[in-house]
C-alpha cells in the first residue's frame, strides 16, 4: 500500500503546486481571492485597504513620489554622441587590453544615444538589439543629418 502512495504523491504533488501557484497569480491579477480563501480574506482585505489609503495620503503630501524623469534635451544627446564617437576612435586607435569588448560597449552606448536622438527628431529607429548593424547605424546617421541634426 505504501509503495503505491509514493508514485501517486510524486505525480499529484507537482500538479497541486501548479494549481496553487496558478490560483495565487490569478488572485494577484484579478484581486478576487480563491473560493477556499474567501472567508480568510475579509480581515486581510481591511488591512490592505488601510495600507492603500495610507500610501495615497503619503503620495498627496509628497513623501512617496515617483516623478517621471525629464527627457534629455536633443542638444545634450548630440554632445554625448560627439563624445562617444571620439571615444570609439580613441579605443580603435589604441592597443589597450580587451579592445573588442571596449569597442562593443562603446558602440552599444553610441547606438543607444543615436536611437534616443532619432526619437527626438521624430525619426523611426529600427527595433532591435544594440549594438546596431553598421548599415543600420549609417542609415540612422544619414537620416539625422538629412533632418538637420548635427553632432
List SSEs in N-to-C order: HHHHH
Biggest sheet statistics: none
Number of helices: 5
Q: Over the alpha carbons, how many angstroms does the gyration radius reach? A: 28 Å
Given as residue ranges, the uncertain stretches (5+ residues, pLDDT < 50) are none
Q: How many structural domains are formed by the residues?
A: 2
Helix content: over 70%
Q: Distance between the terminal alpha carbons, to the nearest Å?
A: 79 Å
Explain the overall architecture.
There is one protein chain. The chain is mainly alpha-helical and 151 residues long. It folds into two domains: 2-61, no CATH class; 74-146, no CATH class. 72% of the residues lie in helices and 0% in strands. It has five helices and no strands. It has helices at residues 2-30, 38-61, 74-93, 99-120, 134-146. Helix 3 runs antiparallel to helix 4 and helix 4 runs parallel beside helix 5 (134-146). The longest helix has 29 residues, at 2-30. The model has no long low-confidence stretch (mean pLDDT 81).
Amino acid at each position: 500500500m505504501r509503495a503505491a502512495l509514493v508514485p501517486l504523491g510524486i505525480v499529484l504533488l507537482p500538479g497541486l503546486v501548479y494549481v496553487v501557484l496558478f490560483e495565487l497569480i490569478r488572485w494577484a491579477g484579478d484581486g478576487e481571492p480563491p473560493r477556499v480563501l474567501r472567508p480568510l480574506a475579509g480581515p486581510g482585505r481591511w488591512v490592505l485597504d488601510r495600507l492603500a489609503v495610507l500610501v495615497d495620503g503619503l503620495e498627496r503630501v509628497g513623501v512617496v513620489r515617483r516623478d517621471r524623469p525629464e527627457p534629455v534635451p536633443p542638444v545634450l544627446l548630440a554632445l554625448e554622441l560627439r563624445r562617444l564617437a571620439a571615444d570609439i576612435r580613441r579605443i580603435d586607435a589604441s592597443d589597450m587590453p580587451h579592445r573588442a569588448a571596449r569597442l562593443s560597449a562603446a558602440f552599444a552606448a553610441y547606438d543607444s544615444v543615436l536611437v534616443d536622438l532619432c526619437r527626438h527628431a521624430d525619426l523611426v529607429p529600427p527595433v532591435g538589439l544594440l549594438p546596431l548593424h553598421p548599415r543600420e547605424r549609417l542609415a540612422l546617421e544619414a537620416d539625422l543629418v538629412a533632418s538637420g541634426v548635427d553632432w
